[in-house]
C-alpha cells in the first residue's frame, strides 16, 4: 500500500529527524544559550556620562572586578585614604590588578602612592615644573608619543640605540629628568587618555610601547643610565601601575634575545606575556596592531612628520582643539563621580540633561571658533575631530535580562544626575575661554622608560 501522507510515514528510532532527536538537539541548544547568557551577565555594559552624550563612550566592566573595586573603595574610605580626585573606578582597579586583587597589599600600595604624590608634588607638577632643556635632551634620548594603535591607545616609542647617557647628563640631571617623567605621566592621565577615549569611543588608560634596540650596547648603560632606568621603573610600577597594554622590542639581536630568554623566567607570566621581543623582520607584526599611517617610516609605516620628525611631532588626538576643549570644560565643571544604576525614566531624563550640558560646551567652542550656530557645529564637529577610520570598531556587549544601565558622571553626586544651572554653564564657558589653542606642546612627548610598568625590578 502506498503512502500518500507524510504523517503516515513510520519514523525509525535512529532517524536524525525524529521528534526525540530534535528534542535532544533543542535541549543542547538551550543549554548552550544558558551558558552563553551566564557568561554575558558576568560583564556589564556601562555608558560613561562624563563625556558628551553624542560620543557614547562605552565602558564594559567585569562583574567580579566591580565587586572587588566596590569593597576596596569602602575600605579606602574607612581608612581616610580616598581623596575625591582619586575616587576613580579604573584607578582603583589598576592597583588591585597590580597586587593580584589582594586587598591588603593593594591598600598598602595605594597609601604609599598618596604619600609619594604629596612629597613629590605630583598634583601640581604640570603647572609648576618647566623642562626647558627638552629640545636638547631629545637629541640624546629620542623618544615620544606618536599616534594611536588600532584600538585607539596612544603609541609610545623609544630609540634606545641612539641614547647617549654621558651627553644627556651634561644637559640635565637625573632628578630633573625624573620630574619630567612624572610630569608626562600626569599629562597622559589629564589629556592623552581622555582624548584617546573620546576619539575611540571606548575607555582607554594604557599605552602600546615600541622600543627600538638597534645599536644598543654597553655604552648605553652607564652607571648614571642604570640609576635613571631604575628610578623610572620604580615610579612606573609603584605609582602608575598597569598602564602598559603591550610592548614590542624591535631590532633585537641574538645577544638581546639571549638575555631576554634568561630574564623572562623571573617575571610574572602576565607581565612577560605583554612583552614581544622581535628581530629585524618586525614590520608585519607592528602593522597588525598599528595602522601604517600612524607608524613612522623608520618602523615600517608611512608617516613622515616634517616638523621635528615623528618623535618630535606629538601626533595624536590629544592635540585636537575640539577634543581638548571638551575635556577641560568637563573637568572644570566638577570632580568625576560615579552614580548608582538608573531606571529607564531616569536614563531618559539624564540624556536630556547631558544633551543640554553638551550643547553648552559646544556653544562655548563654537563661539570661540566662529559665529556659526550650535546646531550646525554640534555632532559634525565632534565626529570630524574623532574620525579615526582605522580604529577597531567598539565591540558590543549584549545586556543580560537582569542587567541595568550603569553610568559614571563627572558633574553629579551619588544621588542623582548633574544639575545644569546657569551658574555651572557660565563656569564651563569661562573655563573654555581660558584654554589655549594648543594645550599640549608638540615638544612634550612622554618618557615611560624602557621597562614601562612591568611591575617588577627584575627586568631592569
TrEMBL record:
Q: What is its main location?
A: membrane
Membrane topology category: Peripheral membrane protein
- Positions of region (Disordered): 1-27, 420-460
The record's keywords, sorted A to Z, are: Golgi apparatus, Protein transport, Transport
Any one Gene Ontology BP term = protein transport
Q: Which CDD domains match?
A: SEC14 (cd00170)
Location within or outside the cell: Cell membrane; Golgi apparatus membrane
According to the entry, every stretch annotated as the CRAL-TRIO domain falls at 133-307
An example of a Pfam family matching this protein is CRAL_TRIO
> Which spans does this entry mark as compositional bias, Polar residues?
422-433, 449-460
Q: Name one GO cellular component term.
A: Golgi membrane
UniProt keyword annotation of Protein transport present:
yes
Question: Which superkingdom is the protein from?
Answer: Eukaryota
Protein name per UniProt? CRAL-TRIO domain-containing protein
Q: In which family does this protein belong, per the annotation? A: Belongs to the SFH family.
Check the record and name the SUPFAM superfamilies matching this protein. CRAL/TRIO domain (SSF52087), CRAL/TRIO N-terminal domain (SSF46938)
